[in-house]
Design goal:
Layout lengths: L1 H9 L6 H17 L4 H16 L4 H24 L5 H13 L7 H19 L3 H9 L3 H5 L2 H17 L6 H17 L3 H5 L1
Length: about 200
C-alpha cells in the first residue's frame, strides 16, 4: 500500500492514463484487502476505482475496464457490509460488466462478475436477526422465508461462473464457486446436485 501510494504521488498529469489507472486499481485492491481501518480503506478503494474508471472505458480496453469495475463492486460490497452503503451499488457494478460481455475477451472476468452476483444473492437469502424481527413485527415473516427467487438467481449466476472459470491456474477460486453453488443448491432443496 505504501509503495503504491508513493508511486502514485510521483506521477504527474502528463503520465500515461492507463498506467495511472492500473496503479489506482492495484492500490484499491490492496486497500480493500487490508485489515487496518477497514471502513476507511474500503471507501478509499471505491474512490480509487472511480478515478481509474474516469480513464478506463469499455471502448478503450474492455478487459481492463471490467477488471477495475469488478474491484469497484468488491469495494462497494465491503462498504455495504460494514454498514456504510447499499449492496445494490455493488450489484450495479457487476451488472455493468455483464452488460459489456460481448466486448470482454477474458472469460474469467465474466466468471468473476457472475460469482460476485451469486454471492450477493446468497447473502440476500440469509437474513440477519434484525431483518427477521422487523419482518415478524410487520407480519411478513412468510414472505421473508420464501427465498426461492433469489436462490434461483444465485444458482444461475454461480453455474455461469463455474462454466467461465477454469479449475487451473487458480483452483481456490474454482473451489469457492463450487462451495457457493453447493450452498445455493442445498438451500433450494436440490440435495443430490449439491452433493455432486
Amino acid at each position: 500500500i505504501s509503495s503504491l501510494k508513493d508511486a502514485l504521488a510521483q506521477l504527474d498529469e502528463s503520465t500515461d492514463g492507463e498506467l495511472r489507472a492500473m496503479m489506482q486499481t492495484n492500490l484499491a485492491v490492496a486497500l480493500v484487502r487490508s485489515r487496518h481501518d477497514r471502513p476507511a480503506a474500503a471507501r478509499s478503494a471505491v474512490d480509487l476505482c472511480r478515478q481509474a474508471l474516469s480513464y478506463r472505458s469499455p471502448g478503450r480496453d474492455a478487459d481492463n475496464w471490467a477488471y477495475t469495475q469488478i474491484n469497484l463492486g468488491y469495494a462497494l460490497r465491503t462498504v455495504a457490509e460494514l454498514g456504510g452503503g447499499d449492496p445494490d451499488d455493488a450489484r450495479d457494478a457487476y451488472r455493468a460488466v455483464l452488460a459489456h460481455q460481448d466486448t470482454i475477451t477474458d472469460p474469467t472476468i465474466l466468471g468473476a462478475a457472475h460469482h460476485a452476483l451469486g454471492r450477493l444473492d446468497l447473502a440476500a437469502a440469509n437474513h440477519s436477526p434484525e431483518h427477521m424481527i422487523a419482518a415478524h413485527e410487520a407480519g411478513q415473516l412468510d414472505e421473508l422465508y420464501d427465498n426461492t427467487e433469489v436462490l434461483s438467481s444465485a444458482r444461475e449466476h454461480l453455474q455461469a461462473a463455474l462454466e467461465l472459470t477454469p479449475a487451473a491456474p487458480d483452483p481456490l477460486a474454482y473451489a469457492r464457486i463450487l462451495d457457493d453453488l453447493t450452498n445455493a443448491l442445498e438451500q433450494l432443496g436440490e440435495e443430490d446436485e449439491a452433493l455432486a
